[in-house]
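Reading a protein record of the kind used here takes little practice once its layout is understood. Each number in the token line that follows is a code from a learned vocabulary of backbone shapes. One such record is shown here in full, so that the layout can be seen directly:
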Amino acid sequence: MARFPIPMVRAADRRLLQEGRLSGPMPWVLAIMLFLTTLAAAAGLALGQAAREIGGGLATRATVQIVQADPVRRDAQAQAVRTMLGRDPDVRAVEQVGAAEMSALLEPWLGTTRSDDLPLPVLIDVTVSQADAVPRIAAALRRIAPDARVDDHQAALAPVARLIGTLRWLALLLVLLTTAATACTVLLASASALDLHRGTIDVMHLLGATDVQIARLFQRRIALDALFAGLIGLGAGAGVLWLLAGQLAGLGSELVGSVILPRWGWGLLVALPIATTLLAATTARWSVLRALGRLS
């Protein structure tokens, strides 16, 4: 029988390979994969933002505490500390915590009323130009204010920074694993579709269709399924992230509040369904062409 190339009409394509929106298990598996990928990618981006906050903001801050029962000596040491810090070239900002703020900090433990005779420490927030200057400043403060104690935020947050770094690598690993699982799902779906339409493929070969034309049919079908599944997975993931963002904001913690998804990160998350569609289409085309090459 003569072999004549046949035109690939879009309506005919749909009749040859029926395209049900989210029909069968494969689109739902892809939707679950993209849902997990969205959460893992958002976690990695948010943890990266937190790492930048710790490294650039919180790590360059310190708190000076002056614990002295005698108010005269306490105020004198506080004045000496503020004077020295104001003259230090590595200090960018000095701010003493006011009495109202101190009362708010102690309210969970002391209640709304307390005795005026209760000695309260002096707290001074210090912002330095570089975190390495904090140990030198602490040594200088101890010479002029024996009761002063410097809390280095960088040293205190070092274990948290290491934990965040580990979690970032774990999030990246999860993204890679879910991406690999998505590619494997497409491979299995392509092989199943080839077996299901083996008779149709033989007829198309007899009519003159090339392997590339046949592969284009499967590529289009799987790409559409992946796109619809990706949109569902992204929508579910965005809903979960919105709920988590509201709960984190309600905690009122500066450290926990730094674990937020940056605005440009949302653009990357929106691009995930497109990337998944391209991955699915490329994988389907490669696997179908490879399988058809073996049959010929």
